[in-house]
Amino acid sequence: MASLNDVNSGVGNGGRAMTQLAGVSQMRKTPMRQGALLVVVLALLTVASTLSMVGFTTALRHRRQVAKEVHALQASELLRAGLRRALASCRDDTNYDGETWDVTDAFPQFNSATIRIDVTPLASQEPPSDQDLFSRKRIDVSAELQPRAAEIQVIQRSLTYVTNNS
Q1: pTM for the full model?
Q2: Separation in Å, CA 86 to CA 2, 117, 136, 162
C-alpha cells in the first residue's frame, strides 16, 4: 500500500504525476485538450454572436415596421380631422373651396405634416328648387407626413367625400 507521501509525489501510481485533493483526482491537461477546448469555446462564441445579431436585426426591423404603422395611423387620423374641418367649413361658408392646413407644429417627429383640402361644387342631379344648383360638393382630402427618420418614406393618404345637401 502506498503511503500519503508516495501518493502526493506520484510514486506508486505508475509514475504519472497526480495529486489528490479532498478525494478528487486532477490530471494535468495536455496541449491537445487545451486546443480542443479553445475550439469549442470559439464555436460557442460564434453561435452566440450570430444569435445576438439575428435578434438585433429582427428587433430593428420590427421597430421600423411599428413606426410605419403608427405613422400610417396618424395620417389616417389627420384625414378624418381634415374631413371634419372641411365639412364644418362648408356648413359655415358656402363659398369655401378648401385650404392647405399645416400641422407640423403638432407633430415634432415629422419634418412636415400637411393636410390639403379641395372642395369642388357638383351640379345637382335633381331639378333646381329653392336650394342652390351647386349644393352638392366633392371634398378631396389628402394628408402627407414626412418623417425625420431617413429610413421611413413619406406617408401619403387621401380620401374623397361627396356631400348630399338635398
Answers
A1: 0.62
A2: 103, 7, 13, 11
